[in-house]
């Protein structure tokens, strides 16, 4: 039997991490080996902290070993309790961080354009037990920051953004990470900017940064004083070294992602039933993901499409399905989330990364057209 040519093609994954040249890392590793300082805010950690703040146009940044630790610390520093309103259309870490702080995630519906929290739904979900709002800039698409800030102000609520996807995103010429009481960004391997593992909290002042720094270091103030119940959330010198090198290419990485996205936008105009989720912010966007909604008249459902593409060696993801509100640990399905449920049933994230070449992208687009033939 003849081999199937499609089976012999290399797999295409939903993302592929960008890495610096290995030779550039060696001098920084030699510095680490010479100093024998591996963690606890070493020299590379401090260099990276200042460098990433400068790159993003920020002043006050606390680095963490990952964004989930950063999100937990941000919620703890803001003193959340009771109920926290958040989106059901996100990665598990958003709701898990709330639960780890002893609070209860309350899921509000999303709006249909960018699939972010709907401010009107947030306001309807507020109760006397609500202490905070945790919106997510889904796919790096900006939330309605003005409306959410107004709601938080009027109701006396804390506003902490899960901005895991939003590295390098700008809104009206300023970093999107500047919004809210605190904002948390991810440097995970799958993100636009990675340090292998890592994350950061963006805060308004040095006092807040000092409190976050203590929380990530077991609550320790000095050798004789522990002021709070903290944990070990420190970024290592190795991760900081990778981050310093990644910053050199961060603008180029986003530029190349934009080119991949433009090719998708052009091609999908001719494929009925597959509609990109557009940010409305393309000049300030980072193209962290390329989400599409699959609907009639396309002949496959989103789940069928993902399975069909996987059979051709093209691996997409249904970010985000199922809804967090559907998980048994959060109480199971909620009826009052029609837009989130509509989106979760239709969403597919297509492969996007800087090194995705035109030939590989044509292979993806041809596979999307095939069921229409």
Structure description:
By secondary structure, the chain is of the alpha/beta class. The chain has two domains: 22-247, 3-Layer(aba) Sandwich (Aspartate Aminotransferase, domain 2), CATH 3.40.640; 250-372, Aspartate Aminotransferase, domain 1, CATH 3.90.1150.10. The chain is 38% helix and 14% strand. The chain has 13 helices and 14 strands. The strands form four sheets. A seven-stranded mixed β-sheet has the order 1-9-8-5-4-2-3, sandwiched between helices. A three-stranded antiparallel β-sheet has the order 12-13-14. A two-stranded antiparallel ribbon has the order 6-7. The longest helix has 19 residues, at 250-268. The radius of gyration is 21 Å and the shape is globular. The two termini are 26 Å apart. 45% of the residues are buried.
Q: How do the helices and strands follow one another from N- to C-terminus?
A: HHHEHEHEHEHEEEEEHEEHHEEHHEH
CATH homologous superfamily annotation of the largest domain: Type I PLP-dependent aspartate aminotransferase-like (Major domain)
Number of DSSP-assigned strands: 14
Number of continuous helical runs: 13
| Main sheet: strand order | 1-9-8-5-4-2-3
CATH topology of the largest domain: Aspartate Aminotransferase, domain 2
Total of domains: 2
Rg over alpha carbons? 21 Å
Regions with little confidence, pLDDT below 50 for 5+ residues: none
Q: Provide mean pLDDT, rounded.
A: 96
Quick summary:
The protein has 373 residues and is an alpha/beta fold.
């Amino acid at each position: 039997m003849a081999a199937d040519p499609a089976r012999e093609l290399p797999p295409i994954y939903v993302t592929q991490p960008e890495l610096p040249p290995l030779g550039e890392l060696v001098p920084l590793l030699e510095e680490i080996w010479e100093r024998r300082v591996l963690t606890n805010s070493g020299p590379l950690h401090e260099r990276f902290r200042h460098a990433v703040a400068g790159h993003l146009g920020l002043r006050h940044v606390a680095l963490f070993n990952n964004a989930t630790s950063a999100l937990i610390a941000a919620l703890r520093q803001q003193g959340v309790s009771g109920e926290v309103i958040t989106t059901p259309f996100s990665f598990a870490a958003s709701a898990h961080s709330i639960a780890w702080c002893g609070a209860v995630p309350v899921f509000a519906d999303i709006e249909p354009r960018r699939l972010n929290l709907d401010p009107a739904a947030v306001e309807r979900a507020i109760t006397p037990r609500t202490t905070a709002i945790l919106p997510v800039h889904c796919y790096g698409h900006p939330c309605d920051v003005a409306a959410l800030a107004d709601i938080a102000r009027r109701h006396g609520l804390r506003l902490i953004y899960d901005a895991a996807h939003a590295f390098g995103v700008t809104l009206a010429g300023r970093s999107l990470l500047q919004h809210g009481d605190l904002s948390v960004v991810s440097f995970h391997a799958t993100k636009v900017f990675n340090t292998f593992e890592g994350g950061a909290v963006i805060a308004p002042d040095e006092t807040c940064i000092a409190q976050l720094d203590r929380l990530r270091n077991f609550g320790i103030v000095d050798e004789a004083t522990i002021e709070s119940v903290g944990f070990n959330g420190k970024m290592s010198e190795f991760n900081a070294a990778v981050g310093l090198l990644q910053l050199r290419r961060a603008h180029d990485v986003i530029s190349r992602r934009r080119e991949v996205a433009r090719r998708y936008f052009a091609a999908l105009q001719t494929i009925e039933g597959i509609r990109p989720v557009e940010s409305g912010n393309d000049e300030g966007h980072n193209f962290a993901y390329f989400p599409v909604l699959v609907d009639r008249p396309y002949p496959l459902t989103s789940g069928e499409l993902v399975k069909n593409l996987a059979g051709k060696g093209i691996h997409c993801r249904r970010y985000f399905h199922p809804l967090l509100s559907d998980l048994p640990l959060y109480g199971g399905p909620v009826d009052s989330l029609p837009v989130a449920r509509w989106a979760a049933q239709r969403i597919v994230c297509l492969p996007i990364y800087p090194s995705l070449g035109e030939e590989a992208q044509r292979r993806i687009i041809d596979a999307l057209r095939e069921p229409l033939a």
